Amino acid sequence: LVAEAVALQADIDTLVVAPDLLRSTFGQETVQTATRNGLSVIEVTDAVFEALSRKDGPQGLGAVVRQRWTTLEAVQPADELAWVVLEDVQNPGNLGAILRTCDAVGAAGVILLGQTTDPYDPAAVRGSMGAVFSQRLIRTTLDDLIAWKQQHHLTMIGTSDAAKTNYQAMTYKLPTLLCMGSEQHGLSEAHLAVCDDTVRIPMVGRS
């Protein structure tokens, strides 16, 4: 994660290093790269680092990284693949996995609505495998999203288990706003009502 933050030029305040724990050559090279780039590095004892770490067997390299957010007003949609819109997603690990998938397929970023969990929650950061540093993050309201969608003539596709169209059969106009709801309830009725179309993801499950 720290190496990804360094490589993606995240807004790193300080690297925290426990020299006796940092045995990885890759980790040591990451610190050297960061130092050459002028980043601040603080060395701490093993005990201090282990007290800071949330995992067993810490590797001796951490970072203090400033959160990076943008706004709808600052974004001018172009030829990007999609923006993923999440409404009331509760599980940080799920959000991290979505961020990782967005990074893998080339999505522009993630727009968070309602009570969607924090992308900078430790579980979300871990689940993102560093994608939290590459994806643009926006937190806004449904009303503001609708106004932005209309201003830029974007297509909003909602996901629903009641939709008739398989997601693979849909023709997507880029960039698409791909909307997903909470793990328990899916998209709200208010959100579904403003979608241009809906798709379903077939779930075979147990026979």
Give your account of this protein's structure:
The protein has helices spanning 2-7, 25-36, 46-52, 92-105, 122-128, 142-152, 189-193; strands at residues 12-17, 40-43, 61-65, 82-87, 109-113, 136-139, 155-159, 176-180, 197-199. The radius of gyration is 20 Å and the shape is elongated. It has 207 residues and is α/β, with parallel strands linked by helices. It contains 7 helices and 9 strands, in the order αβαβαββαβαβαββαβ. The strands form 2 sheets. The protein has a 6-stranded parallel sheet, with helices on one face. Strands 2-1-3 form a 3-stranded mixed sheet.
Please specify the SSE layout and strand pairing:
Layout lengths: L1 H6 L4 E6 L7 H12 L3 E4 L2 H7 L8 E5 L16 E6 L4 H14 L3 E5 L8 H7 L7 E4 L2 H11 L2 E5 L16 E5 L8 H5 L3 E3 L8
Parallel strand pairs: 1-2, 4-5, 4-8, 5-6, 7-8, 7-9
Antiparallel strand pairs: 1-3
Helix pairs in contact: 4-5
Key descriptive features of the protein:
7 helices, 207 residues, elongated, 6-stranded parallel β-sheet, alpha/beta, 3-stranded mixed β-sheet
Low-confidence stretches: none
What is the distance, rounded to the nearest whole angstrom, between the alpha carbons of the first and last residues? 39 Å
Task: Report helical residue fraction.
Answer: 25-40%
The whole-number mean of residue pLDDT values reads 93
Walk across the major sheet and give the strand order: 6-5-4-8-7-9
The class by helix and strand makeup works out as alpha/beta
The H/E string reads: HEHEHEEHEHEHEEHE
Please tally the β strands and state the result. Answer: 9
Strand content: 15-25%
Number of helices: 7
> Radius of gyration, rounded?
20 Å
Which descriptor suits the 3D outline?
A: elongated
